Amino acid sequence: MPPLNMSPREILAKLVSFPTVSRDSNLPLIDWVESYLQSHGVESKRVPNEDGSKASLYAVIGPKVPGGVVLSGHTDVVPVDGQDWSSDPWVLEERGGRLYGRGAVDMKGFDALALAAVPLALKAGIKRPLMIALSYDEELGCEGCRGMVEEMAATLPAPEAVIVGEPSMMKVVTGHKGGTAFKVHLKGFEVHSSIMHTGVNAIMEAAKLISWANEKNAENRERVPGPVGAAFVPPWTTVHVGTISGGTAHNITAGDCHMGLDFRVVPGEDLDDWVAAAEAKVAEVRAEMQAVRPEADIVLDRYFTVPPLVPEPGGAAEALMRRLTGDNASHVVSYGTEAGHFQRNGWSAAVCGPGDIDQAHKADEYIEVAQFEAGWAFMQRVVGQLSE
Ligand SMILES: [Zn+2]
C-alpha cells in the first residue's frame, strides 16, 4: 500500500467518522489506524478486550531505545443520544473557526495529531522512539488501557515521558484525583411495617452507609491538606452517593435498595485505603442486617477505578512538556485520565492536549482550529526533541 499522506485535519475527519461510542466496538477505527500505520511501514500491536469486541493499539516508531515519548489517547467517545446537534456528529464540520464533531476535542483531535506525527517522525529520522498508545473504554472509567499499559511497560524501553492528550488548552497538567465507584445492592427482608423489627429494611440500612459518607466528608474537610492535596478543589477526598432507589410500599420493609457510592481521592491518600474503609463499614452494616435475617446481604460491585495522577517532584514528563509548551505554571484538573495507569507502571506522565474540556461530552462538541494548530506545532516540537 502506498503511504497514506493525510493532513492532521483529514485524519481527524476520518477518526470522527467512526461512531466509537464506548458501549460499541471500536474495531473499525482500530482497523483503519492499523492500515494507516502499515502504509507508513509501521507495525502496531493490538491488545483486545475479553470478548474481542474492542481493542487498544500501540506502536513504536523509530529505534527501540529508552528515552522516547508516548502519545496516549482514547478512541472511544460519549454517546450523542438525546443531544440536539446542529450538524451530523459523525461528520467533522468547520464553522466559525471551530471543528465540530463528536470526539473532536475529547479526544480524537489529539489522536489525529499523534497519527499525523508518524510520517513526520519517520522523515526526521528520530533517534529515540515515538510511541502511540490508543485505548478504548476510557469514558467508562479508564479501565480499557490497563492491559495495553502493562504490556508496554513490560516489553518496551522506558520513555522519557508519557503525554496524555486530554484537552488542557495545551497547559501542562501534573495532577488529578483518583476515583473509584461502587454499585451497592442491599438485600433486606420484607415484612409488614407494623412488625418491622422482624424484617430488614434495605433503605434504612442504606441510610447507615450514607451517614458514614457524610461523616467522612465532614472529617476530611476538617483535616489540613497535605502539600500535594492543597492544589486541588476541594483539597480533600470526597465520598458521594449520587443515586438511590428501593422499596415498594409505605407499609412494607424495603426488600431491596440500590445505591451508588463513589470516591474522589486526593493524591497523597491511598485509593485502596478508602476502599478498605468502605468495605469495613459495609461488613459492619451487613452483620447488623444478618443478625435479624441471615439471608440479608450487601453486594458491592466496584465498576471503575481511576488511579490518581500524582505530581512528580522534578518529573521528566513535566519537564519535557514545560520545555515544549513554555508553560511554567502548575495545573491540576478535576477530571480523571489514563495518566495514572502509566505512572503506576513506573513511567513519568503528565497531561497536555489541545482544546477545552468544557466543550467535551456536549451537543455540538468542537475543538478550536487555533487549538488544533497549537497541538500540531507541539507535535512538531516533540518530533524535533526526539531527533536531537
Ligand atoms: Zn477524554
Molecular structure report:
The protein has 388 residues and is α/β, with parallel strands linked by helices. The chain is built from 9 helices and 16 strands. The strands form 4 sheets. It has a 6-stranded mixed sheet, sandwiched between helices. Strands 9, 10, 11, 12 and 13 form a 5-stranded antiparallel sheet that branches. The two termini are 30 Å apart. The structure holds zinc ion (ZN). Residues 74, 106-107, 138, 166 line the site of zinc ion.
| Proportion of helical residues | 25-40%
Largest sheet: 6 strands, mixed
Tally of contiguous helical segments: 9
Mean pLDDT: 95
Q: What is the first-to-last residue Cα distance?
A: 30 Å
Shape: elongated
Q: How much of the sequence is in beta strands?
A: 15-25%
How many runs of DSSP E, i.e. beta strands? 16
Instruction: List SSEs in N-to-C order.
Output: HHEEEEEHEHEEEHEEEHEHEHEEH
Low-confidence stretches: none
Strand arrangement within the widest β-sheet reads 1-2-6-3-7-15
Bound molecules: zinc ion
Rg to the nearest angstrom?
A: 23 Å
Q: Which class of secondary structure composition applies to the elements?
A: alpha/beta
